Amino acid sequence: MLKDLEAKFLSDFEKNQNIVHKICRMYTTNREAHNDLFQEVTIQLWKNYEKFRGEAKFSTWMYRVALNTAISLYRKSTRQLKTKDISAFEYKIKAVDYDDTEELQLKALYNAIQQLNDIEKALIFLYLEDKPYKEISETLGISNGNARVKMNRAKEKLKNILNP
Amino acid sequence: MDLLDNYKKAWDNQPEEMKKISALEIYKMTQAKSSSIIKWIFVIGLLEFAFMILSTFIFDVSNDEKIMMAMGVYELVQISQYLTIPVLFYFLFLFYKNYKNISSIDNTKKLMTKIRKTRRTVRNYVIFNLLYIVYIAAIMTFGMVETPQGSFQNTPGWIIVLIMMLVTVIMLLLFWGFYQLLYGILLNKLNRNYIELAKLDQKE
After folding, report:
1. Which site among B30, B119, B188 would you substitute to test the A interface, given the most A Cβ atoms closer than 10 Å to its Cβ?
2. What does the domain layout of chain B look like in residue ranges?
3. Using one digit for the tens of pLDDT, what is the confidence trace for B144-155?
4. CB contacts < 8 A (A, B)
5. Each residue's pLDDT tens digit, A100-147
6. Per the CB < 8 Å rule, is B21 touching A38?
7. Among partner residues B10, B35, B110, which is closest to A75 by beta-carbon distance?
8. Which pTM does this prediction carry?
9. C-alpha B195: how far from its chain's center?
10. Which of A54, A97, B10, B156 can pair with A102 through a Cys bridge, CB separation 3.0 to 4.6 Å?
11. Distance, CA of A129 to CA of A109 (rounded, Å)
């Protein structure tokens, strides 16, 4: 029974791991911390997997546990040196019609996000991932109306960082 | 087009993480020990309880007991010691209940509230112990002034009170400072984020 559950978890997680990588990239500034946070998220996901029972989509559930870990449970990120250099991250570059505009934009976007506070990061991340306000407010535990207002504010802040 | 829309497009087209973690590696990670804040609060909390219990065994109090008996306050101290046992279990129960209640599937606000509640239980236990120290110090001072012992025999009462007060205050400050530092380091980020989230949820 546990073996089946484990196998299902591993396959679900492996497929959806990109969500966690994105969160790690936002909340940490170097590879070591990235891996460290990834590991803690994995532990938290596995620990709660039995309670998951497929009520929501696996990915939706994953967003919540991963963000909670980054915001509330993970302890080490504050000790990391604050650096804007994220070149240490290696990403696949699409070989077809190669254009580095988007790659540079993505880098700039991550750099800008890293300057937001932890809660603003979560708001912006959920916006970028096209999450509806209902899900955003439920994930963070704030009212729908406040989620909207504060989201606009976080977006404005991000725009100002991107285009001072 | 909005400035953010451009970046949003780059986000949507963002390539997959290159260093994909394999199922085997994920499996290994699930077996690893958590180093989350909850875990730390739990471990430190248990250590505090253990320390408070063990300290009654470690320190040799037979000499103190003799002094207390001579001063006629021994029973007062002993009764209060028995009374602290149910209080200790009450705190242990609360602490464990709070800890068990914490789940990373809760929404962020709820999770933070629960973590802070667990930490508050431990803090209240510490405060209880500090108050107990004050209580014992008060009894001892009273006993010393009434029936001075040892080198205090020729010392005026007000000097005894002053010395005892000074010693108690220093002890309290040391303990309190230690806890503030410990939890300050541990919960610094959590508290900051809690305040940010609370600000977020304030009515406009």
Report:
1. B30
2. 57-200
3. 888 877 777 777
4. 171
5. 788 888 999 999 999 999 999 999 999 999 999 999 999 999 999 989
6. yes
7. B35
8. 0.79
9. 21
10. B10
11. 14
